[in-house]
Recover the amino acids of this structure.
C-alpha cells in the first residue's frame, strides 16, 4: 500500500509539472514471478521509476521499453520473460525467476486523467474496494480494444469507456462477482472467446485500530505506517492519547468508557488490536467490538487474562471473520516492544492474506493456473 501511495504522489507531481508518464500494470503472469496482477510501475520522463512490477531484469526492460511502446499511441500488452526455452527473448541471463509477466503499458499525457489511478486514489480515500475490468486481448477491435475498461468504484458507481452496452453489462457483472469473492481473476468473454479480461480487485489500505496509547503502541504505529496502513490510536486516558505522542498515526482519539467506539468509523474488514493494559477498558472494548465484521481482532496479554475478562463480561460472540486472537501475535520468541509489534503485525498480515504464518520452506507451492489467451 505504501508503494501505491508513492505512485499516486508521483503522478500528482507529474500532472502539476505538465509531464507525461507511462503506467505499466501487471495484468497476467505465467510460471514463477515475484509480483501478481495489479502490481504497477510509473515511468517518469527523466527515466525514474516509482513502484515495482518484478525484480531485476524485467523491471529494467519495462523502463527501457515503456516509452518506445507508448509512442505507438494506444495501450499495449507486452510480455516480459526470464525464460530462455520458450522461443521468447530472455531479458537477462542469470535471472532468479522463471516466468512471464504480461504488462499493460499506457501513456498518460500531460494533465490527462487516468481512470485506474483515479480508482486507486478513491479506494484509498474511502477505505473501500473497487474493481478494474480491463480488456487485455481482443480479436475484435470493433467490440473493444486493449486497454478499454469498466470500473466499479468504492461508491458502487459503474463507469468506463466500453461502448457496447452488452459488453459493459457483462464486465460490470464480472466486477461485482470479483467484489463478492474478494479476489482478482482473468477470464475470456465473447461469443467466440474473442476477449480476454483482467478483473482486478483494488483493495483499500489496511485500516488498523490500536486501542491503547502506552509506549508499547509506538512501534506498532511506526511499523504499520511503514507498511502503508491507515492507523488510528484510541485510549480513554487523555494524557496519553495525544497527537504529539503519535505523530505518525492518521488519527488519535480519546474514547469514552460508556461508549468506547463513539466518534470512530471502523470499516468492514478492519483490524483491531486491544492493548490498553486496563481491565476496565479492555472489557468495555471487547463488548463493543464483538459484533463488528472485522477481519482481525486481537488482545495483548496472556490468554488467562482474556478468559477472565470474557467470563466477567458474560456470553459474547465475535463477528470477526477470524475469531478472537488471544494472545495476539505469532510465536516469534518476542520480548521487546518492537519485537512484540512485529509479531502482532505479522499475524494480522497473515490473517488478512488467509495464511497461517508458517515457514515458506515448509509450504507446498501450487502450480499457477493460467487462463488461455483469447487473442495474441
Amino acid at each position: 500500500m505504501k508503494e501505491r501511495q508513492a505512485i499516486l504522489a508521483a503522478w500528482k507531481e507529474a500532472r502539476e509539472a505538465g509531464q507525461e508518464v507511462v503506467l505499466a500494470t501487471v495484468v497476467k503472469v505465467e510460471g514463477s514471478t515475484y509480483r501478481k496482477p495489479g502490481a504497477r510501475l510509473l515511468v517518469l520522463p527523466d527515466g525514474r521509476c516509482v513502484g515495482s512490477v518484478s525484480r531485476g531484469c524485467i523491471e529494467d526492460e519495462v523502463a527501457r521499453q515503456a516509452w518506445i511502446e507508448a509512442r505507438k499511441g494506444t495501450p499495449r500488452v507486452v510480455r516480459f520473460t526470464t525464460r530462455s526455452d520458450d522461443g521468447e527473448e530472455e531479458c537477462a541471463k542469470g535471472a532468479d525467476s522463471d516466468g512471464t509477466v504480461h504488462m499493460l503499458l499506457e501513456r498518460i499525457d500531460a494533465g490527462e486523467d487516468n481512470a485506474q489511478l483515479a480508482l486507486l486514489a478513491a479506494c484509498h480515500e474511502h477505505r473501500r474496494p473497487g474493481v478494474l475490468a480491463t480488456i487485455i486481448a481482443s480479436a475484435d477491435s470493433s467490440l473493444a480494444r486493449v486497454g478499454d475498461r469498466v470500473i466499479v468504484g468504492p461508491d458502487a458507481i459503474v463507469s468506463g469507456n466500453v461502448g457496447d452496452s452488452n459488453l459493459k453489462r457483462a464486465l460490470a457483472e464480472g466486477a461485482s462477482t470479483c467484489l463478492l469473492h474478494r479476489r482478482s481473476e482473468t477470464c475470456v468473454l465473447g461469443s467466440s472467446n474473442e476477449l480476454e479480461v483482467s478483473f482486478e480487485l483494488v483493495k483499500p489500505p489496511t485500516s488498523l485500530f490500536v486501542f491503547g496509547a502506552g509506549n508499547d503502541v509506538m512501534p506498532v504505529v511506526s511499523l504499520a505506517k511503514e507498511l502503508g496502513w491507515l492507523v488510528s490510536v484510541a485510549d480513554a486516558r487523555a494524557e496519553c492519547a495525544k497527537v504529539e505522542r503519535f505523530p505518525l498515526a492518521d488519527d488519535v482519539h480519546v474514547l469514552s468508557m460508556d461508549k468506547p467506539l463513539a466518534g470512530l468509523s471502523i470499516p468492514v474488514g478492519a483490524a483491531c488490536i486491544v492493548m490498553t493494559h486496563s481491565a476496565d477498558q479492555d472489557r468495555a472494548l471487547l463488548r463493543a467490538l464483538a459484533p463488528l465484521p472485522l477481519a482481525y481482532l486481537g488482545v495483548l496479554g496472556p490468554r488467562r487474562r482474556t478468559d477472565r475478562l470474557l467470563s466477567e463480561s458474560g456470553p459474547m460472540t465475535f463477528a470477526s471473520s477470524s475469531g478472537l486472537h488471544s494472545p495476539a501475535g505469532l510465536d516469534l520468541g518476542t520480548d521487546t516492544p518492537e519485537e512484540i509489534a512485529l509479531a502482532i503485525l505479522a499475524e494480522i498480515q497473515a490473517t488478512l492474506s488467509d495464511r497461517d504464518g508458517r515457514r515458506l520452506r515448509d509450504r507446498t507451492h501450487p502450480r499457477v493456473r493460467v487462463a488461455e489467451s483469447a487473442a495474441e
Observations:
- The mean pLDDT is 87.
- Helices lie at 2-16, 57-70, 115-126, 165-181, 218-226, 279-289, 303-313, 337-352.
- The two ends are 32 Å apart (CA to CA).
- The chain has three domains: 2-108, 115-202, 207-352.
